[in-house]
Amino acid sequence: MAMNFEQARTNMVENQVRPWEVLDGRVLDMLGRVRREDFVVAEHRQLAFADLCLPLGHGEVMMKPVLEGRVLQALNLQSTDRVLEIGTGSGFLTACLAGLSAEVVSVDIHADFTATAGQRLAAAGVTNAQLHTGEAVRSWQPDGLFDAVVATGAVAETPARWLGWLKPGGRLLVIRGESPAQQAVLVTHEGEGRQREENLFETDLPYLVHAAPAARFVF
To answer: How confident is the model over 140-153, as pLDDT tens digits?
Structure first.
């Protein structure tokens, strides 16, 4: 029997995302409009709306819908915002960010992710997202500053260089700490070198390249 994707999408929003304290109508509307099934690999299309992290390759995963909803809500994006996404992955969150903001710049270390996400975004009619291939923890440098920065993989510590990419009042959302008890943290740039941090919720994601905790040797 063919899967009813529209019903599955509605169920995802109403029975998974909304009950996890995602109440922002703009976010719920965006998750209900972007065709998530078009952003997963073909063999996982039937699982597009499941409460699962779906494998993407290279040890990376597509975040659960509930996590995507919480991340989008925490960023509190405005229609005039310029957004940086670190970790393009499937391109699904990119599409949602683009629908909630003026411009998205997205970078991924894996060239095949960048290429595939670009095709998916074009097919979805997304025209305000720029994709780049690069390593953002240590080397890649964007042009200009951003109202919001979001990393879609975990970091052991927040790279200081990322904080320098925020406009005053800008927000950085990172998944930080040691697996399996990482924290989603929202860092707000308050100007003059000051930041405010807020712990949002606990989760667990694979680390970005060069962002894992240092290896510990036990004798």
So the answer is: 999 999 999 999 99
pLDDT exceeds cutoff 90 at 161 = yes
1, pLDDT greater than 60: no
| Distance (Å, whole) CA 163 – CA 172 | 7
Q: Please name which of 16, 14, 13, 46 lies closest in space to residue 30, comparing C-alpha atoms.
A: 13
Residue type at position 16: Q
Whether the predicted pLDDT of 219 surpasses 60:
no
CA 3 to chain centre: 26
Q: Calculate mean pLDDT across residues 170-183.
A: 94
DSSP codes, the chain: ----HHHHHHHIIIIIIGGGT---HHHHHHHHHS-GGGGS-GGGGGGTTSSSPEEEETTEEEPPHHHHHHHHHHHT--TT-EEEEE--TTSHHHHHHHHHSSEEEEEES-HHHHHHHHHHHHHTT--SEEEEE--TTTT---SS-EEEEEEEEEESS--HHHHTTEEEEEEEEEEESSTTSEEEEEEEEEETTEEEEEEEEEE--PBPTT-SPPP----
61-88 mean pLDDT:
97
Q: Is residue 13 predicted with pLDDT exceeding 80? A: yes
According to DSSP, the residues that pair with 84 across neighbouring strands are 105, 149
